[in-house]
Amino acid sequence: MAGPSFPLLVADIGGTHARFGWVRDAGASLSDVQTLLCVDYDRPHDAAIHYLSHFHSGASPSRVVIAIASAISSGPIKVTNSAWTLDRVEFATHTGVANIEVFNDFEAIALILPHMAATDYQLIGPSVPNPNFAMAVIGPGTGLGVAGIIPVSQRPGTWQTVCGEGGHVTLCAASTYQSDLLRVAGRAHTHISAERLVSGLGLPALRRAVAEVEGLPIEQEMDAEQIGTLGSTRSDVLCEHTMEAFCSLLGLIAGNLALTLGARGGIFIAGGIVPKLGAFFGQSGFRTQFEAKGRYINYQREICTAVITTPYPGLRGLVSHVMRDSAQD
Q1: CB–CB of 173/285 below 8 Å?
Q2: What is the pLDDT of residues 307-318, one digit of tens each?
Q3: What is the C-alpha to C-alpha distance for residues 20 and 315, in angstroms, rounded to an integer?
Q4: How many CA atoms lie within 13 A of 95 on its CB side?
Q5: pLDDT tens per residue, range 283-312
Q6: How many Å apart are CA 107 and CA 102, to the nearest integer?
Q7: pTM
Q8: What is the pLDDT, as a whole number, of residue 325?
Q9: What residues contact 128, with CB distance under 8 A and at least 6 apart?
């Protein structure tokens, strides 16, 4: 993108949180990261102004790069699971920065997949990443994000991101039990997308479906954080079974993504839920379900699955994009 890149303001806007960070110059690293609650601000630029006034009063960024949880368009962009809408013109007017670039939030994470070190992720299963093939990232947070990155043929070291709305594909079942869960959930929605059950928004609905299918009582409603905590520590039977179902369904979806994209380089898990599950995730049915593709089970077994553990992968992806962009100028 034409024009100076530094100082650089990067932002990762999701359904619940907005994260901001700063890069002083081309030789500096990401710094001053702050996480804000979206509900505390009316519009994205209000949160950005708060961040700038708190950390960089008197300084103005030369460039802004934003990752946002939505399909990207040339006009105003409505965040899928938030009341926020990002309007580039409005954002530029209020922040005084005309040099604005926007990515999907999981596309931003995909940007760093080929460049991650082994310390940036935790392997789930025996296989390791293979940078000679396409890679993908999927992650349940407030919603369910999906993106990929593909090596460009005959241009070594060059990659192209692929971004759609994979969280909204129709959720399928690989067992009678999963079919029963979908049947119960289908009473409330005409379309059961992957995000309807495999996300922070979907966990309460998945818990209700598990309770009905298994005949377990629901003493009170719980939010996603409560379900995840009680389930991963095996402190509550219903929550534990809910999280088992959650991990298996995520494995099914991730396996489909690997086959569809040809992501033999690896499938990486991001988002706010899975990294908090600890050992529970590795012990769950995720990897078994990921591999369970009939005649292609051996194909799947060779594909790496890993949980991204490095902090702020979306912001890091945006920074890496700008650094490479600046190096080519």
Answers
A1: no
A2: 999 999 999 999
A3: 8
A4: 32
A5: 999 999 999 999 999 999 999 999 999 999
A6: 10
A7: 0.95
A8: 79
A9: 266, 304
